[in-house]
């Protein structure tokens, strides 16, 4: 067991562990820590506690000190400079005729560096732009090209569910999402219905994928023949949350539709039916939704 505190940084939902040493840190208090990017201002989100060693990425760096008023003022000043820096950089990009979209910028806590984040369809030669920005800001300049998912994570927005986008509101890391997840959950493979603001597959498809993957293996395949309490039937649909099967049965030249609990349905399933199949046409149509 090791004693840790949890720290978050501005614009991130990921929690990083640091060594509190013998000091105590209150929830939501500011601290100064050393990271790969240098000194940074963070906020305590987990007060000192002990966690198993296998939950820690070694070496566990110590917190340097509590943030003071001077640190708070510096952080505020850096944030206030952001809008002006974005405007200048946007003008410089246009002046150099570069095909890139500026998304965000961050000033390092010590004020010696500014990082600009942008999106572009391909590689961009921004060497002259960097020189121009360095001469304007008199700081070290870094330009980072990011993906469309990262852009949505930074800018935020509301998804079709009416809630804030998962990537911007609660996800520590962007998860890998596949077409098979949507197919397993029985969702319509209409790009409009399964894509988020970024134009890629919705991150929330991965949340309950483990449940749906296990349940899918227990359900009969749509279109297959099964035996119900009332005789032979054909599967029309399945409900993997209620664990029910919707079937149709022919009775005197008429079709009767009924729902049965899964445990009342008898069927044999081939090994090839354990995972959903995606035909070539579906795969081609949905290719643009995959990173």
Query: How would you describe the oligomerization state of the chains in this entry?
Result: single chain
H-E order = EEEEEHHEEHEHHHHHEEEEH
- What's the overall average pLDDT, rounded? 89
Helix content percent band: 25-40%
Main β-sheet description? 5 strands, antiparallel
Spatial ordering of strands, largest sheet: 2-1-4-3-5
Explain what this protein looks like in three dimensions.
The protein is α+β, with helices and mostly antiparallel strands. 26% of the residues lie in helices and 28% in strands. The chain is built from 9 helices and 12 strands. The strands form 3 sheets. Strands 2-1-4-3-5 form a 5-stranded antiparallel beta sheet. A 4-stranded antiparallel beta sheet has the order 9-10-11-12, with no helix packed on it. The protein has a 3-stranded mixed beta sheet with strand order 6-7-8, sandwiched between helices. A hairpin with a 7-residue loop joins strand 1 and strand 2 (16-18). Helix 2 crosses helix 3 (127-137). The longest helix is centred in the N-terminal third of the chain and has 14 residues, at 82-95. The radius of gyration is 27 Å and the shape is elongated.
């Amino acid at each position: 067991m090791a004693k840790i505190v949890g720290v978050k940084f501005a614009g991130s939902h990921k929690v990083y562990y640091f060594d509190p040493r013998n000091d105590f840190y209150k929830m939501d208090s500011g601290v100064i820590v050393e990271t790969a990017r240098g000194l940074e201002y963070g906020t305590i989100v987990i007060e000192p506690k002990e966690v198993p060693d296998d939950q820690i990425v070694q070496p566990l760096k110590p917190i340097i000190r509590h943030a003071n008023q001077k640190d708070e003022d510096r952080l505020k000043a850096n944030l206030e400079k952001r809008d002006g820096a974005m405007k200048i950089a946007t003008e410089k990009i246009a002046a150099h005729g570069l095909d890139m979209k500026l998304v965000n910028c961050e000033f390092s806590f010590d004020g010696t560096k500014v990082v600009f984040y942008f999106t572009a369809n391909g590689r961009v030669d921004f060497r002259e732009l960097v020189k121009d920005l360095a001469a304007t800001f008199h700081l070290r300049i870094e330009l980072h090209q990011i993906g469309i998912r990262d852009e949505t994570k930074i800018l935020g927005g509301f998804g079709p569910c009416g809630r804030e986008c998962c990537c911007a509101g609660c996800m520590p890391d962007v998860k890998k999402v596949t077409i098979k997840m949507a197919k397993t959950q029985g969702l319509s493979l209409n790009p409009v219905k399964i894509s988020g603001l970024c134009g890629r597959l919705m991150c929330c498809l991965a949340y309950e994928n483990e449940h749906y993957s296990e349940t899918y293996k227990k359900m009969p395949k749509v279109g297959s023949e099964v035996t119900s309490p009332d005789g032979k039937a054909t599967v029309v649909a399945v409900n993997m949350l209620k664990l029910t099967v919707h079937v149709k049965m022919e009775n005197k030249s008429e079709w009767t539709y009924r729902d049965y609990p899964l445990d009342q349905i008898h069927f044999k399933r081939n090994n090839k039916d354990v995972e959903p199949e995606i035909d070539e046409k579906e795969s081609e149509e949905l290719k643009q939704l995959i990173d």
